[in-house]
Amino acid sequence: LRIDYYRDDTVALEAFKAHEFDWRTENTAKVWAKSYNGLAIETGLINKIEIAHDEPTGLSAFVFNTRRTLFSDRRVREALALVFDYEWTNKNLFFGAYTRTRSYFSNSELASRGLPSEAELALLEPYRGRIAEEVFSTEFIPPETDGSGKNRSSLRTASKLLRAAGWTVTDGKLVHSETGALFEFEFLMQSGGAFERIIQPFARNLERLGIVVNIRLVDTAQYQNRIDNFDFDMLWGGFGQSLSPGNEQRDFWGSAAADVPGSRNLIGIRDPVVDELIEAVIAAPDREALIAASRALDRVLLWGHYVVPLWHLRSYRIAYWDMFGRPEITARYDHGFPSTWWVDPARVQALERGETKLDK
Prior knowledge:
The chain contains 14 helices and 14 strands. By secondary structure, the chain is of the alpha+beta class.
C-alpha cells in the first residue's frame, strides 16, 4: 500500500483520472457531480460509487457568538435561522446530495426524534419553566421551503420575531427601537475557502430584512487566533460526535468552557440546565441511559437556537480504478478500504490490456 500526498486537490483529481493512483474519496458535492468525467469513467475503467453508512456526522452549522449582545436573544437567533434557505442551497449548489441536519448528534441513535420518551421526560421535567416549552411538545424540524429561492413565508415569520425582540425597519435598515443601533454583524471566514458561495445567498436574504452582513476573509493564522479568543460574530463551525459522547461535551457546550480561550464552546453557552444534562450524559450507567440523556441534551440545545443547522452526508463517495473486489456487505461505520477490499488479479490484467466494460 502506497499513499501519495497532493498539495492541490484539483491536481490530485486529475492525477487520479490519469491513473497516477487507484482509489479516492470525494468530499465536495460540486466536484462529485461535475468533475468526474472522461473516457475512463464513461467506459467503466473507473467506478464511481456511494456507500451508505451509519457513522455519526455530528453538527455542521452557522454558529452564533452569544457573547455578543446582538445574539443574546433567542428570538433573534431563531429569526436568522429561518432566513437560511437550505432547500434552495441543496438544489442549486449541491445537486441534492445532502441531508438537512436536525440534531447535534446527527445520523446516530443519539439524535432526538419525535416527542420525548419517558426516560427523556424523567430528565427534562425538573427543568420545566427553565427551558423552552417546545422541548416537551414539539419535534425540532428546521424550517423548510419549496427550493425556489422565494422563501417569503419564512421571512415574514422572521420579521415578526425580530419585531417582538425590539427590532424595526427604518429607511430600509433594521434598527433597535430603543437604542437605535443598526443590526449589523460580521461573518468570519478563512480566505481561500469554498464557502463564500454558500454564505452569500444567506447574506442576501438577511439584507431583505434590513440586516447588514459583512463577510470578513482572513488568513488561517488570524482566523485561528480570532476563534481562540472568541473574536467573531458568526462563523461556520463543526462539532464531531462519536457513538459514546462523554467529557468532550463539557468543552462543546459547558459553562466552564465558555470563557476559556481556545475551548470548543464557540457559541458561549452558559446554561446550568445544559451543564446538568452534560453530566447526565457523562454519568450514564448503561447504553439506554446514555441514549436518553444525549437526546434530552440534544432537545435543549436545538430549541435554544444557538446555531443554524446545515447538512450532512450519509454515504461515502468513492471513486476507484476497476481493479478491486469488495464484500457485498459493508460495515455500518466504515467503507472498509483497504482492510476488507482486495486486488483482483483478473481485473488488473484487464486494465493493463486496456479492456473496458464495453469490450466485455
